[in-house]
Amino acid sequence: MEAYEFETTQIVNRFLRHRxxxxxxxxxxxxxxxxxxxxMTNEQVGRLRIIVLANNEIVMKEMExxxxxxxxxxxxxxxxxxxxxxxxxxxxxxxxxxRS
Length: 100
Description:
- The longest helix is centred in the middle third of the chain and has 35 residues.
- It is built from 3 helices and no strands.
- It is an all-alpha fold.
């Protein structure tokens, strides 16, 4: 169990340091789970579930943070918006202040 926890901690840390992207992180976490699951006893499954859920929470919080950072960056510098960005607010109101 300690080996699984160590390996997944390393994977999550690489993700947090931007050394791997989300798809690779998920793939590596799934692969680690697949490698360790067959060797686990029934008593270890509860601990495994806790580790999996903790890793999931860390990764999801990081994705939320990155999404918020991207949004903030776009609001600060609207020229970074994708060409197909929808700038209309509710009911077609324009929310782009630089267009006034």
